[in-house]
Amino acid sequence: MATQPKTRTEAKRTVFVDTFTDGLLGPDVPMLGPVRDGGHIVWNSTPGCWGPMITPAIRGGHEVCQPVAVEGAAVGDAIAIRIKDISVASIATSSGNDQPMEGRFNGDPYCAAICPGCGAEWPRTRVEGIGPTAIRCAECGADCAPFTFTNGYTIAFDEQRRVGVTLPAERAEELARDAAAAAALPDNSTQNPILTFAPHDLVALATRLRPFLGQIGTSPSATIPDSHNAGDFGAFLVGAPHRYAMDAQDLQRHKTDGHLDIDAARAGAIVVCPVKVPGGGVYVGDMHALQGDGEIAGHTADVAGTVTMQVEVVKGLGIDGPVLFPVIEDLPFLARPLSEDERTRALALARRYGMSGLEESLPISVVGTGPDLNSATDNGLARAAELLDMTVPEVANRATISGAIEIGRHPGVVQVTFRAPVDRLAACGLLDYAVEQYGEVPSTANDGPRRDAGAAATDGATLPTADGTDGAIPQGA
After folding, report:
1. Burial of 468 by CB count in 10 Å (0-12 exposed, 13-18 middle, 19+ buried)?
2. Confidence of residue 444 (pLDDT cuts 50, 70, 90)
3. DSSP-assigned letter for residue 387
4. What is residue 447's predicted lDDT score, i.e. its pLDDT?
5. Are strands 163-166 and 125-127 parallel, antiparallel or unpaired?
6. How far apart are CA 278 and CA 77, in angstroms?
7. I want to staple 215 with a disulfide (CB 3.0 to 4.6 A). Which of 54, 99, 154, 286 is the partner?
8. 260: which residues sit within 8 A by CB, 6+ positions away?
9. In this predicted structure, what is the pLDDT of residue 449?
10. Before 34, cis peptide (omega within 30)?
11. What confidence score (pLDDT) does residue 445 get?
12. Which residues make Cβ contacts (< 8 Å) with residue 194, sequence separation at least 6?
């Protein structure tokens, strides 16, 4: 009997994505898929930030991949995203501090560009030559890039994408003349490659690569420019003079905080995201080759590449923003599971003071966002307290003595990371992800055989010890 063709709405085991939005996200942006609950998505991602920032026809600061619907994901659920692999395709990129160009935007250079020559909104452009004046209006020929560099660099990568070195002018200009090829821009990308500008203020600076996704999340429930799907950049929409303006309450209700710029969102991590539209609309973009905490320059090394993920629906979780389970080496020192030796010492101390065992806990990282770091921290503490049925002061204590507050992006994205009681993780449906990342918590109520959570997750990896030296985490029995 002949096999019946699949219907267009039948969920697929794997969805391949090589198409992109025009910088907007929301319920009106068509979704691909659906992908099966437990299925995989393979993405061909464009560079974020700078390329779209000098492409005024793109209506957001990034050019993210077209969202994918997940089978069975309903509003109020969450979607757990396992990042299986991130592979950098670009051989080089350019980046640096930005300066908006006055007269070339309506209130916000990221999402409301205007040609200074003919006044066209979101003008189409062409590239003429190289350098910071190369982006020209397709209608009137005016220089119309909304941004330029205050201090910029061009960085090239080795074949294994392990290290990078910033280049002098002549080498940067060579790459600029074939910028799309050096950036490995996907075929369906419409951005002007930032390598065209050939910045070269930093020369011969060497650094390491550790790629991650600046954008990873789910679609907001109202139309939002992709770069503004977070509490800090989203604050620019409040009272804005352009068509994407929102009030503060609507922004809080609709955004999903997919614009993280958290370097822990890399291969091996699990990111749990809220579902605010039917199907979720999982999307990625703004791939970075490297970044220090805070992305303090405002931008980092944006690259193209491929990403493989597995998605899974978490029914009824009801979170407002992302939750992370980073790879163990990305956890703050105090948030890492105790080694077997540390647990033994702690248990002996507990018994000396009349306790029969230790609290069973595993790490979790809750994202908070806001217009500034203080408000982002308050948001992360409040989200963690609601998720785990704690008070905010308890979360603050736990993050102080068994975790840390980490800056994802300055000015307003943080991670509130700490070890949470396993019963609270179980109650909200997230314990399995913590165990997957960090291993089972050993019982300390007796002296029987135990398995170290840290050792189980790292397979003998080396982590800092209490005295600041590197020591191998011992394998549990």
Report:
1. exposed
2. low
3. H
4. 43
5. unpaired
6. 10
7. 286
8. 213, 214, 215, 216, 217, 230, 322, 367, 408, 409, 413
9. 35
10. yes
11. 53
12. 47, 49, 50, 51, 53, 54, 93, 94, 95, 179, 183, 302
Given a cut of 90, whether residue 443 has pLDDT beyond it is no
Helix axes 392-401, 373-388, angle to 10 degrees: 110
pLDDT digits (tens, 9 = 90+) for 199-248: 999 999 999 999 999 999 999 999 999 999 999 999 999 999 999 999 99
Domain boundaries, the chain: 12-89+209-320, 92-206, 328-459
Amino acid at 291: Q
What pLDDT is attached to residue 131? 98
Q: Which fold has domain 12-89+209-320?
A: Jelly Rolls (2.60.120)
The amino acid at 150: T
Residue found by looking up tokens 């040609």 in the block: 115
* Residue 184, Ramachandran bin (φ over 0: left; ψ between -120 and 50: alpha; else beta): left
Structure-derived torsion over alpha carbons of residues 275, 259, 104, 249, reported in degrees to the nearest 10: 50
402: which 2 tokens? 């068994």
User: Minimal CA–CA distance to 420: which of 358, 350, 357, 364?
Assistant: 364
Phi-psi category of 395—alpha, beta or left, where left has phi over 0 and alpha has psi -120 to 50? alpha
Question: How many C-beta atoms lie closer than 10 Å to residue 354's C-beta?
Answer: 6
> Which residues lie below 8 Å from residue 414, measured CB to CB, with a gap of 6+?
367, 368, 369, 373, 376, 377, 380, 405, 406, 407, 408
Estimate to the nearest angstrom the gap between the alpha carbon of 446 and the chain centroid. 41
Q: What is the mean pLDDT of the chain?
A: 92
Six token digits for residue 387 = 């998720």
Has residue 472 got a pLDDT over 80? no
